[in-house]
Amino acid sequence: MLRKLILGLALLAMPVVAAAGSAEKNVEKLQSFYKEVANAGHFEKFDEFLAENFVEHEELPGLPPTREGVKQWFTLMRTTFPDLKFDVEFTVADDDKVVAYLTMSGTQAAEFLGIPSQGRAFHVKTVDIIRFEKGKAVEHWGVVDSGVMMQQLAGEAAKAK
What is the dihedral of CA 89, 58, 69, 26, to 10 degrees? Predict the structure, then answer.
């Protein structure tokens, strides 16, 4: 009887341990993505991080909500903002999802969404939610303070100060 109880408790605990381990691995994978791909521009590594069936839930105007669309977005951003950087302030993980709160920044070197380059920098807060399967991102939801970004690039924030 005691043996069955101990075995039952051990089996109940196993999924919790497995989930915690995969959550930690997902956080490490996301941090590696920011470091190697987003910040360093090693776009040839996209396929190591994003699954073939990846779905982008954040609106990327004119781009498909796929892994290929995300590649195109990062290419556009890196071309427009050569010093593009994502500074992760903290992450929270739960099972197959990781939430990252970060600051995205860069200095404009080319026209961006109709705003001519004047060499202005932007710094905005961003929240990314990524769902993982088998060590790869399969979905992304994101929120970027794009209004503040556009103000900073257009110089409106500088004029207000």
Answer: 40
Q: Using an 8 Å Cβ cutoff, are 101 and 90 in contact?
A: yes
The identity of residue 44, as a single letter, is E
Q: Give the chain's domains with CATH numbers.
A: 2-160 (3.10.450.50)
pLDDT band at 31 (very low <50, low <70, confident <90, very high): very high
pTM across the whole model: 0.81
**Alpha carbon distance 51, 132 (integer Å):** 9
35-74 burial, b for 16+ CB within 10 Å, e for fewer? eebbbeeeeeebeebbbeebbbeeeeeeeebbbebbbebb
Helix (H, G, I), strand (E, B) or coil at 124: strand
Which one-letter amino acid corresponds to residue 75?
A: T
